[in-house]
Amino acid sequence: EKDMTHPGLTPTVTRMLHDKLYEKRKVAALEIEKLVKTYTSNENTQDIQRVISLLAAEFTLSQNSHSRKGGLIGLAACAIALGNQHIQPHLESLIKPVLICSSDPDSRMRYFACESLYNIVKVSRADTLPYFSELFDALSKLSADPDPNVRNGSDLLDRLLKDIVTETPTFDVTAFVSLLRERMYTKKQFTRRFLVQWLKCVMSIPEVDILVFLPELLDPLLLILGDPSKEIRNMCQSTLGEFQTMIQKSPDKVDFNNMANIIITHSQSEGKISLNDNLLIQERSLNWLVHFISLAGSVVLKYLSGILGAILPTLAHEDVQHKNIRETAKRANVSLMKLITPALDKEQTDQTHRSPIYYYAIVYNYQNNVTNVAKSANPTFYFVVKFHFNFKCSRPNTNLPLTEIVDVFTEHLDFDSTYTKSAVIRWITHLLIKIPYSIFDHVEKIFTEVMKRLSDPADDVVLLTLECMAEMASSVAGTPIDSQVFVGTRLKCKFVVWLNTSLHTSNTPLVLNVYFTKFISRLLRYFKNDQDLLEKRSSFIIRQLCALLHAENVFRALSSSLTFSKEQQELEDPRFCSHAIKKLNTILMTSSELSELREKLKNKSGKENSDLFCCLYKSWCHNPVAAICLCLLTQNYQHCCTLLQKFSDFELTVDLLMELDKLVQLLESPIFAYLRLQLLEGTCRQHLTKCLYSLLMLLPQSRSFDTLHHRLNCVPDSTLLPALSHDSEPGNRLVDVDFNQLFKHFVDVQLRHAEFKRHSRLQASIT
């Protein structure tokens, strides 16, 4: 008996499909299965399709929920009856109605839809893959269903579909990745877990080259690392770790260019980071960055400005919470620095800007064919020779975005963090060493910004600034200062020694360029405008400069800049000059960094030493006591007596007397031990004794007076000392110096100071 309103189905079967009891619907499904099997054996395709269409239209679309459930179980029965060999022509008619029911408002309906799909897919196996997109979309929603029974049902279907995909070599991975990526930006935890699990499944298929699709998947994967669920975060970390392992095995398959900006974006600090999940995103991104730098090498240099923009702020974090991020950022920073090599420097066409000593070294090494010898004896030297030779022959163009890099440096030099500022200055120094000609195109901007850091409260930042300035002032890319011979050799700064990448050795002659003069001039201007900097930092700054660029070069330049000249007298500030010379004299007389310069001034003679003395003397005249001290150090005692006699024309202010007091204390120090012993010698005793007594006469009755007086009383009676002969050495050790001219200069400078004081008092009385 057949139901004419439902062709192919008996009224009993139809009625049971509408029943609310599951057992009766199941009995009806068994009857449908028998019926479809009969149609299949008779190859009655039309009746099969008629039954499927009836179940889809009349049952699964019914308003009655029980009828819809009956339609679902009936369609599953049809699939089972058809079997794997006959289901393919009817697959679309079977799947589409069930997929519609999978989004039904009734949770029980969604559960039965999962059950029905499971049976259909289990029968059809690989024939289901043309409908993979629809099935995957439904599963992604069902996996996040609020009903746990529905989620359990979808899990069964999910595992089945994964098995089919894994065993099917024709699976369309491209379409799958597109589906996956557009859904991975969801914030639903269950959906995220479902998607990551699917990605891991596809990654496990040997035939699938998933690395090709990594640029599309990396961004959402890093975002999933921010999920509140620890399980999902761990799963995502595991997936990213597998990707890293694949990259290390096959780096040639990775499109670094398409992933660089993604990693840079996620590596950037958000400023106020409080959530651990966001910290994890940043940490993992930085970890990826380290791997990319290691594997991609110079490919990442074109993104250097962006990478530095991400790394530098991260170095500012000092709390324990950010420790891992900070350490990873440091590793990335060091790895990046190692990618900067001299080969990246631009071709230098203007040969006049190169140091003659620099070229001489190249020609000498080449002509004498020392390369093979150097290679066996000194690997570092061999590298230098080889580098210079290649530099001269051919030089690749650099892809470094230096303009953008310098902008990043400028921005981050204003950070409060000492670590960030230090990293920036180290970078600038590194670029000056490795690619001097390229970075010198931006040197004006760099010079101005880095100089500002001299007033930084952190000593480490100031020291790095001085090292950077020293490298800039002695760079081969700068224009050498004409007609001036410099003393000393280039020294490695502490940072370069730590990085172990410098081309400079301690034997490289020091040739200073115009930025040395510019730096000294700017430094004095800073001292003049910032009294606190002059008082608290001048000694530290000058001493470090002397260690980096040799004390004689530094003191010659400072002295020349401070020397009074009639052409610039309107621009001079005598009060500042006097105070600056007082500071410089203290440094010269007491600092260990100046010991070599002191010995040279004290003992050596000749035109070079006389020129050095005259250079210092002309500026030392700004401070009478400093000038006296310099003459005592250089053993020009007769001229010292002349200066002290001139003190009677000066206004003996409290400040001047205090400086004389300090001079006496200095004379009692080990530095002037030789002077005290000379009181026992016949050669210079006469002028030296007169100097000290002149000084004694200027002092008021004080402790310093008593000290000096006691010292002079310790000198034995002249009858016990060697007699003064007529052919004794002159009172001034430097015999080739025109001391009359120097005395005239001293008087002119002091008149200028007296005029300035009178003018200042007049202005004060008017106001």
Automatic annotation (TrEMBL):
Name of the protein in its database record: Protein VAC14 homolog
InterPro entries: ARM-like, ARM-type_fold, Vac14, VAC14_Fig4p-bd
Keyword Ligase: no
Cellular component terms (Gene Ontology): endomembrane system; PAS complex
Protein task: Scaffold protein component of the PI(3,5)P2 regulatory complex which regulates both the synthesis and turnover of phosphatidylinositol 3,5-bisphosphate (PtdIns(3,5)P2). Pentamerizes into a star-shaped structure and nucleates the assembly of the complex. The pentamer binds a single copy each of PIKFYVE and FIG4 and coordinates both PIKfyve kinase activity and FIG4 phosphatase activity, being required to maintain normal levels of phosphatidylinositol 3-phosphate (PtdIns(3)P) and phosphatidylinositol 5-phosphate (PtdIns(5)P).
Domain annotation Vacuolar protein 14 C-terminal Fig4-binding: ranges: 532-715
Protein family according to the UniProt entry: Belongs to the VAC14 family.
GO biological process: phosphatidylinositol biosynthetic process
Subunit structure: Forms pentamers. Component of the PI(3,5)P2 regulatory complex/PAS complex, at least composed of PIKFYVE, FIG4 and VAC14. VAC14 nucleates the assembly of the complex and serves as a scaffold by pentamerizing into a star-shaped structure, which can bind a single copy each of PIKFYVE and FIG4 and coordinates their activities. Interacts with NOS1.
Highest taxon in the source lineage: Eukaryota
Species assigned in the record: Ciona intestinalis
Localization of this protein: Endomembrane system
One matching Pfam family: Vac14_Fig4_bd
Keywords from the named record: Membrane, Repeat
SUPFAM superfamilies named among the record's database cross-references: ARM repeat (SSF48371)
